[in-house]
Amino acid sequence: MTGPRPFKYLDLITALFATLLIISNTCSTRLVSLGGVFQFDAGTLVFPFTYILNDVLTEVYGFRRGRRVIWTGFLALALSAAALAAVGRLDPAEGWEGAEAWEAVLGLWPRLVLASLAAYFTGEFINAYILAKLKIKTGGRRLSLRLIGSTAAGQIFDTLIFASIAFLGVIDWEAWRRLVWSNYVFKVGAEILLLPLIVPLVNMVKRAENCDFYDRETDFSPFRWWD
């Protein structure tokens, strides 16, 4: 009896995906300005790389394996939020002067994670679904356009959901509008700018894994994480 086919890079991509997701949400506690034009949470600088890894997963290994990785990242983020929430309820040690600073930064993190979980779950699955469907429709051609199209669609939902849950009522309306616009433009722009690296990366992984999966008979339900 033989087990499931081993892959060289699937475990590494899964670990990177979950790590970048947690890092991006921690960075989201800081709002930054770029060139006086873009204003966004700092997690936006990291989060596009999770979409790139999602693209690699779906394009190379298929939606079903990508779905398991998306759920893995979801659970890792939820556990990290639960741990921080539990730590935040403990009394600070006597003489420790960092309690207020910790609360000011990481005290907001559970709300940010709730926003991220909702946005991430929706956006990542939309991205993977559209990419998988377009691959079948185009016969695997036009990879660059498929990558941009799936990311652009997924990021609309991701950005609106995240910004609404995380920052409505925390910042004023004009700041919220700039945040949404800046986040979306930056995330999609990052995908476009990095295409000269993403396309060769996808093709390299395909060759290394000897795998180029087409989801012609895949059940696209996002809730079959155990499959």
Question: How would you sum up this structure, described in words?
Answer:
This protein is mainly alpha-helical. Helix content is 69%, strand content 4%. It has helices spanning 10-27, 48-61, 63-88, 99-106, 109-138, 143-167, 173-193, 195-209; strands spanning 31-34, 38-41. Strands 1-2 form a two-stranded antiparallel ribbon. Strand 1 (31-34) and strand 2 form a beta hairpin. The model has no long low-confidence stretch (mean pLDDT 87).
Biggest sheet: strand arrangement = 1-2
- How much helicity do the residues have? 55-70%
Q: Compute the CA-based radius of gyration.
A: 19 Å
Mean pLDDT: 87
Q: What count of domains describes the coordinates?
A: 1
List descriptors:
227 residues, mainly alpha, Arp2/3 complex 21 kDa subunit ARPC3, two-stranded antiparallel sheet, 2 strands, 4% strand, globular
Short description:
The chain is mainly alpha-helical and 227 residues long. The protein is built from 8 helices and 2 strands.
Give me the secondary-structure topology.
Elements: H1 10-27, E1 31-34, E2 38-41, H2 48-61, H3 63-88, H4 99-106, H5 109-138, H6 143-167, H7 173-193, H8 195-209
Antiparallel strand pairs: 1-2
Helix pairs in contact: 1-2, 1-3, 2-3, 2-5, 2-7, 2-8, 3-5, 5-6, 6-7
